[in-house]
Write a structure and sequence with these properties.
disordered C terminus, single chain
């Protein structure tokens, strides 16, 4: 992982990305990953990140991230769009008949 990070840093530096922009992008990606893991629950995400929920909310605002859009993007699709389930399996494969 350290090698991958070192390569990424070299690519970003050679592309002329500033330190501030690199840190901002890292924060965005890291926080979005943690929020996705907790299905948009900011209280649980903040706990994992080691910060207060208000600090996370403020950080999202500073990074230009809308918590409402994040939650909507993480939500499960409506039942009409989800694959059908059967009693014996978790997902049913639907054939198009072709």
């Amino acid at each position: 992982m350290k090698r991958e990070l070192a390569n990424l840093v070299l690519q970003m530096r050679s592309a002329g990305i500033s330190y501030a922009d690199a840190v901002c992008e890292f924060k965005k990606q890291y926080i979005l990953e943690v929020l996705a893991r907790h299905r948009g629950n900011q209280c649980k995400a903040a706990e994992e990140l080691g910060m207060h929920r208000n600090t996370l909310s403020r950080t999202l605002t500073e990074l230009g991230l809308d918590s409402t859009e994040i939650r909507q993007g993480i939500r499960r699709p409506p039942a009409s769009v989800r694959p059908a389930r059967t009693a014996g399996s978790s997902l049913q494969v639907v054939s198009s008949g072709r």
